[in-house]
Amino acid sequence: MSRRMFRIMLRHQRIDELIRREQRHRAPDVFKLMRLKKLKLKAKDMLRRMVTKPSRAG
Questions:
Q1: Is residue 9 part of a domain?
Q2: How many Cα atoms occupy the beta-carbon half-sphere of 18 within 13 Å?
Q3: How far is it, in rounded angstroms, from Cα 8 to Cα 24?
Q4: What is the pLDDT, as a whole number, of residue 1?
Q5: Number of domains the chain contains
Q6: What is the per-residue pLDDT across 2-57, written as a single tens digit (0 to 9) for each?
Q7: Three-state SS for 2?
Q8: Spatial distance between the Cα atoms of 42 and 35, rounded to a whole number of angstroms
Q9: Is residue 58 scored above 90 in pLDDT?
């Protein structure tokens, strides 16, 4: 696993934790949740592209 992929996975996990924390609030900030979910999806898409992208080393 590359360093970049590892950093993106960590970012994805941290964002997921922030989402869970915000959802536990009595009145969660809907706009903050939307922003966090978009960031999480962006990280997930980046990981997917890295996994499915053909290797240049070949």
A1: yes
A2: 17
A3: 25
A4: 82
A5: 1
A6: 999 999 999 999 999 999 999 999 999 999 999 999 999 999 999 999 999 766 65
A7: coil
A8: 11
A9: no
